[in-house]
Amino acid sequence: CHRRITHSHDRTIFTININAKPPTTFTMIRTLFTVAVLAAAAVSTQAFVAPSIGQPALATSTTSLDASRIHAKKEKRQRNRDNMRKFKKGGKRGTSRKKMMRKLQSGAARQVENEFIAKCFLTIPPPVSPEPEKRY
C-alpha cells in the first residue's frame, strides 16, 4: 500500500511505500558502486567537452608550452639587442669634450714615445779611429 502526501493545491508531492523493506548491505554496496562509476565517467568525460564561451581556448595550455614561449621571447629580445648594436648609427653621441682632449693628449704622448724608441734603435756607424802607423 502506498500513502500519498499532498499539498494544498491537490498535487502529489511524493508517495511513500509503507510496506517497503529496508535496503540490504548488498543493495547499498551496489548503489554506491553505481554512483562511483557514474562519477568517474563524469570526471573523465570533462576532458572531451569543448570549453565554454567565457573561457579562452588557451586557458588549458600546459606549462611546457608557456615555458617555450617565454624562452622564445627571451631569444627574440637578445636578437633585437644584437641587431641594435650592429646597426646603430655612429656619431658624436657619448663622447664628451674631456674624453676627446684625453685622446688627443694620449695620441701626442704616444707619438713622442715612438719617436724616442725609434732613435734608440738607430744604427750609427762606429766612430772612426785613426789607424796606427804600420811598421815593418
Index terms:
mainly alpha, two-stranded antiparallel ribbon, 136 residues, rod-shaped
Q: Would you summarize the structure shown here?
A:
The chain is mainly alpha-helical and 136 residues long.
The residue-averaged pLDDT reads 76
Structural class by secondary-structure content: mainly alpha
The SSE string, one letter per element, is EEHHH
Number of extended strands: 2
- Amino-to-carboxy terminus distance: 169 Å
Percent strand: 5-15%
What is the molecular shape? rod-shaped
Compute the CA-based radius of gyration: 50 Å
Describe the biggest sheet?
2 strands, antiparallel
DSSP summary: helix tally: 3
Helix content: 40-55%
Strand order of the largest sheet: 1-2
What would you say this structure looks like, in words?
The protein is mainly α. It is 51% helix and 8% strand. The chain is built from 3 helices and 2 strands. It has helices at 25-45, 63-86, 97-120; strands spanning 2-6, 12-17. A two-stranded antiparallel ribbon has the order 1-2. A hairpin with a 5-residue loop joins β1 (2-6) and β2. The longest helix has 24 residues, at 63-86. The N and C termini lie far apart (169 Å). The relative contact order is 0.03.
Write the layout of secondary structure elements.
Layout: E1 2-6, E2 12-17, H1 25-45, H2 63-86, H3 97-120
